[in-house]
Design brief:
- The chain is of the alpha/beta class.
- The protein folds into two domains: about 270 residues, TIM Barrel, CATH 3.20.20.70; about 70 residues, no CATH class.
- Helix content is about 35%, strand content about 15%.
- The chain has 14 helices and eleven strands.
- The strands form two sheets. An eight-stranded parallel β-sheet has the order 1-9-8-6-5-4-3-2. It has a three-stranded antiparallel β-sheet with strand order 7-11-10.
- Helix 5 links the parallel strand 3 and strand 4.
- The chain is globular, with a radius of gyration of 19 Å.
């Protein structure tokens, strides 16, 4: 078995023969190093990078770097996008680890639908990330790419059926189980694991129903509830359903440490409830975002062809796609209202002031008392 870097930890996770029990090591890593069972959701492009992730970890949570087109600010991004993304991912992980000072946990969020899914996971593992969280499809082959035994792996699911399928597949093919599971309900921002018709007609299951489903099939595997979790009262409800913790994304956008540009933060602060809309992403999944020019174009049936195609998504055809999601999210990061796609959770309109990561983490932690 592969050795781990932290020999101080490994000595407490050995059997009588001196072999390391990696399952126990990973479980203890989750429960003891994650002092506050709060995962900051991965938000791309450029919203949750090393600065935000590092400060969340510094305050006892799990800070998450989104690998989605992470290298968009590199000088050679459009001419050498793959290497630019991998180079930038390493930089962001290093930044997060330096900021966190060994506190909390650092994770990446890697979408299965991206063409650099495998490479992102491997680079993250090679550079000392603590956990890999993966969604936007079923990450059935994720364990194949994680060679380090002390790295936690977790799928994002929106049903008990999906959780059971992943657990069965991982156990059969890799003798591995999820170290935790993120259950994302329909009120989340960004890509959603539901049919658009279900969302429009309000026929999707509630987060409570899905969490209870997943808890029932997960056994001892910790479950984190996500999607519409806004405050301490929401956290208390999630815990009453059997969740061990929560994942929260949108609320971290309006923190001083968030990597998003000030323009993006202002758009969130000024949002009204009526501005939150459903759309269809080139990824092939419905998504939730704020009203913008791009959404108006889609509603009218027009196309906004890509200016540059970097081949980021397996399911996207630049000849037919209604718009380039990477271009739109890059524009959003800088607050470009005319050309940006502003992913946000259903409760984003409730955010009315800036705060710090520490203040937000302290506020949310009250839900666990």
């Amino acid at each position: 078995m592969q050795e781990i870097n932290n020999t101080k930890d490994s000595q407490f996770h050995t059997d009588v023969k001196g072999n390391i029990d990696y399952k126990k090591l990973r479980r203890d890593k989750l429960f003891f190093e994650l002092k506050k069972p709060i995962i900051q959701g991965g938000m791309g492009i450029g919203i949750s990078l090393g600065n935000l992730a590092g400060h969340v970890a510094l305050n006892g949570g799990m800070g998450t770097i989104s690998t989605a087109v992470v290298g968009f600010r590199e000088k050679d991004f459009y001419t050498n996008s793959h290497e630019a993304n991998m180079r930038a991912l390493k930089k962001e992980i290093d930044k997060a680890k330096e900021i966190s000072k060994g506190e909390g946990l650092i994770a990446i969020n890697a979408m299965t639908v991206t063409n650099n899914f495998r490479e992102s996971v491997e680079v993250a593992c090679d550079n000392g990330v603590d956990a890999i969280i993966s969604g936007a499809g079923l990450p059935l082959n994720l364990p194949e790419f994680v060679k380090k035994e002390d790295v936690l792996i977790a799928p994002i699911v929106s049903s008990g059926k999906a959780a059971a399928l992943i657990m069965k597949s991982w156990q059969k093919n890799y003798d591995r189980e999820p170290d935790f599971i993120v259950v994302e309900g329909s009120l989340a921002g960004g890509h959603l694991g539901f049919k658009k018709e279900e969302l429009i007609e309000g026929k999707e299951k509630s987060l409570e129903e899905i969490v209870k489903e997943v808890v029932s099939v997960a056994g001892e595997i910790p479950v984190f509830a996500a999607g519409g979790i806004f405050d301490e009262e929401d956290i208390k409800k999630a815990l009453s359903w059997g969740a061990s913790g929560v994942q929260i994304g949108t609320r971290f956008i309006c923190t001083d440490e968030c990597d998003a540009g000030e323009g993006f933060k202002e758009i969130i602060l000024n949002a009204d409830e009526k501005d939150v809309q459903l759309t269809v992403s080139p990824v092939g999944l419905p998504g939730r975002a704020l009203k913008s020019n791009i959404l108006e174009i889609l509603i009218s049936g027009e196309r906004k062809p890509p200016n540059h195609c970097i081949g980021c998504i397996r399911t996207c055809d630049p000849k037919t796609t209604p718009y380039c999601i990477s271009e739109a999210l890059i524009k959003a990061c800088d607050g470009d209202v005319e050309n940006g796609l502003f992913f946000a959770g259903s409760n984003c309109y409730r955010i009315k002031e800036m705060t710090s990561v520490k203040e937000l983490m302290d506020e949310l932690s009250k839900g666990f008392k």
